[in-house]
Amino acid sequence: MNDLWIQPTGGALAADVHGVDLSKPVSDALFQRIADAWAEHLVLRFSGQKLDDHVLMAFSARFGELDRVPVAAVGFDRLESGLEPAAQQWVAVISSVRKDGKAIGGLGSYELVWHTDMSYNPLPPRASLLYALEVPPDGGNTGFLNMYAAYETLPADLKHAIAGRTCIHDSSRNSAGELRKGFQRTLDVRHTPGAVHPLVRLHPVTKRKALFLGRRPGAYVHGLSVEDSEKLLDAVWAHATQERFAWYQKWRAGDLVLWDNRCVMHRRDAFDESLRRLMHRTQIVGEPVLAG
Ligand code: OGA
Ligand code: MN
After folding, report:
1. Ligand 1 pocket check for 117: Cβ under 6 Å
2. Ligand 1: does its nearest atom lie under 6 Å from the Cβ of 268?
3. In terms of Cα–Cα distance, which of 49, 43, 41, 42 is closest to 20?
4. In sequence order, which residues have a C-beta less than 8 Å from that of residue 38 and are 6 or more positions away?
5. Which CATH number does the domain housing residue 60 bear?
6. Could you list the residue range(s) of the whole structural domain that residue 51 is in?
7. 70/152 same-domain check
8. For residues 266 and 178, what is the distance between their CA atoms, to the nearest angstrom?
9. Which ligand is nearest to the CA of 257?
10. Which of 48, 109, 204, 206 is the most buried (most CB within 10 A)?
């Protein structure tokens, strides 16, 4: 296949990959060109794809070992997802759709705050691949942030203030703010459950430094008073979440979007809860987080 064409969005990150049918075998040479484009653009969109879960899992596995789906929120039962047994541990269903009154997927139709997927784990996934099966005519756009750019443009005082520091990434709530099964609410951020990671991380492939914030709720910078931690995090977050570092994906059915979870954060706009939106997501096991 020689007609692969990478078209940057022209925004702060992301590119379209044209000329690939992911339902057909992807050669090693072609895969390498995709991997190179991914390192350069951080987010790749493959439009017009027709993927079943087997193909989604097989293509995802080219990027590394599949990671298990996250712990579900209270009140959501994965058995309602309708996934084949072989896919249930590996494919997360993200959906507003209800069947007989029960959600078939997680995260409903709410706004999702800026976050890194599963960064509350000691080995956060290196990538997520989100495939749209059904989307509403509008709403539910997904924003992506370039965390290399956010780090590189950080004012010197903030760069200095976070250098060598670590932060807690809250495992108790999902990106919609819902409590996960088996967790209690914690009010004191010093006791937030979850992994502790450096605020600046070195990307193992590109060797570039990126801000690594995870998610704002429940975050706490070690070694600071709660007040100083809140102030520092508010300042860093205000910088990192500027529109100039963001690009928004407006979904069409058949879009597969791959993001680098090591140097990208994402969020989602809310949408009308009566509208159907159905996405299947895989995630790829990451490597140990390197301090930058
Ligand atoms: C995710 C996620 C965004 C969306 O699947 O990790 O954040 O647009 N989803 O549903
Ligand atoms: Mn997410």
Report:
1. yes
2. yes
3. 49
4. 44, 258, 260
5. 3.60.130.10
6. 5-146+246-285
7. no
8. 17
9. 1
10. 109
Tokens encoding 276: 């159907």
Q: How many structural domains is the chain composed of?
A: 2
**44 residue type, one letter:** L
Considering the domain architecture, whether residues 49 and 131 belong to the same structural domain is answered as: yes
Q: What is the pLDDT of residues 154-174, one digit of tens each?
A: 999 999 999 999 999 999 999
Confidence at residue 195, expressed as pLDDT on a 0 to 100 scale: 97
Q: Collect the ranges in the chain with pLDDT lower than 70.
A: 1-2
> The whole model's pTM is what?
0.96
CB 49 within 8 A of CB 273: no
Give the pLDDT confidence score for residue 154 in this predicted structure: 98
Reading the block at residue 16, the tokens are 């379209």
Verify whether ligand 1 is closer than 6 Å to residue 249 (CB atom).
Answer: no
Q: How many whole angstroms separate alpha carbon 63 and alpha carbon 44?
A: 13
Secondary structure of 218-287 as H, E, C letters: CCEECCCCHHHHHHHHHHHHHHHCCHHHEEEECCCCCCEEEEECCCEEEEECCCCCCCCCEEEEEEECCC
